Amino acid sequence: MSDISERSTVEIIVADFAIVDPAGKSNIVGAGIALLGFDPQQGITNRFSIWVSVLVPTSLCPAEFSVEFALVDAAGELVLMPGPAGPQALRIAQIVTAEKPNAQVPMAQREHIGARVHLVIDFGAGLPLTPGSNYEWRIQLDGDADRQTLYPFGVWGPSAPPVIG
After folding, report:
1. What is the pTM of this model?
2. Domain 3-155: assigned CATH number
3. Tens-digit pLDDT profile for residues 53-68
């Protein structure tokens, strides 16, 4: 466990589209998706974006830490995606830096607002997920599995038939 994973706050939004501009501001369209649409002819979900905001206390800044996005199924197992070398887990990690708020911000406000890091992963082509199934996006900071943030969602479509026998 790290101070970052223990003391930071993580927010997740799944939306039709999201982007973070060079100034660090987020633009989000169609936020709060609970059920992704599915195109049966293509065999993929509709396009979507995942927006993640990490609020780091100013006292920990500047700080460098890892952020991991992982897609898990209803059983909590990593979802495998087809790839050139065979199936692989849909897990994306990157190192980010949280800087102290601008020195022009008054000290009392600087301590209050903390540092925010906004990240977006865009799936413009959708994903080959199973219609009628449930999933979660799992976000971890610094690899801390004890403190993770989950975003449950489903894929629109008929539920899978029961398995008999």
Report:
1. 0.89
2. 2.60.40.2550
3. 999 999 999 999 999 9
